[in-house]
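Q: Structure tokens for this one, please.
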Amino acid sequence: MEKFIRDNVHGEIYFEDKVFSELIDTDEFQRLRRIIQLGGGQFVFPSANHTRFSHCIGVYHVICKFLENEIINKNISAKDKKILKIAGLLHDVGHGPFSHTFELISAVSHEQYTVEIIRGNTQINKVLINNGINPKEVVSVIEGKHKNKIVNFLVSSQLDADRLDYLLRDSKGAGVNYSKPDIDWIIRNARIYEGQIVFTNKAINAIENFLLGRYHMFKQVYEHKISIAFDNTFKMWFKRLKDLYIDKYQFRASKTIEIFKEVFENKIMPLEKYTNLDDYTMFEIFKVLRDEDDIILKDLSNRLINRKLLKVSSDLSRETIEKMKTEFQGDSKYYFDIATIRDISIYKRSSEKKDENIYILNKDKLTNIKDLSEIINVDWNNKIKKIYIFPMYNVE
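A: Here is the predicted structure, written as tokens:
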């Protein structure tokens, strides 16, 4: 079996085994078509409407490119290569609506849901078993616990296939030029040393460019004030929804509210419910709840639908915010908040539990790239800053 997908980032993406097509055709994977990669970023960059679906396929492709490196290829068994590709394809299948935004209200991370989808009573699980693939082995890669460190590195590290794809894809989708990692050069200069992936000194500049690109993408795209505003408006919307549920408010749309019952009660949302949720579902829920009698829920739902989001600023004083609260006509606890954002580190040394360092091999000597790069060694401070959340107009 041969199958090609045309991708606007990588060009033609090739699938040589039917298991990949069967996985893509499952309901759980097709759901990713309806989950925007950048969540609230779509309200900043009009063309940033690419999905987790295209990203997952892109990660699969980058892994395939790594396997074209003969040194890497011969250090992974045929069986583990297939497991690795499947793990790359499925690594984000557990994302909820609006990608990371949904995790603000969920007690379970998207990584946990990914594992549950692969192991649970799902179409993906059945496809794997029917093709002789042990779902537990796929999970071991996603959790970074596979016996082959090379396999783990390619799916989860500071320089993995996931980051290489999303930086390139998000940059293109947002229409910015902050991050265009030289994937081919980085892969060409990858080597194996003592059972792990390292890079030759020829790749230092390309890796620095990759790390700087990621840093700038966080500053200018992922942490854009409108994206933060969407996240916090969504959080406030859910806070009001949950409070009404706890107060036994009589919702007109009682069936809609039933969707979130477990989340309201700080329990785990069942998999069959979770996999029915996507961005489309949430926007329909916003529309339905806009017709409720509660004025705050109506208002916050309308703000999410029509991009009349709460505002964010790190420049206002506490006194200014308190004055705005006293003048605000409405319940301030659903409209004012303080969020904290930690400045992203351009590079971090790995913990003892998991070695994610990027190593450079030069004349048989292995060195952490941080000890060779002047750029990476700049003191980026990694400060935590407060951001005030507030409305620009009263409840309508």
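A few notes: Strands lie at 3-7, 11-15, 190-193, 196-200, 311-313, 337-342, 359-362, 365-368, 384-390. The mean pLDDT is 92.
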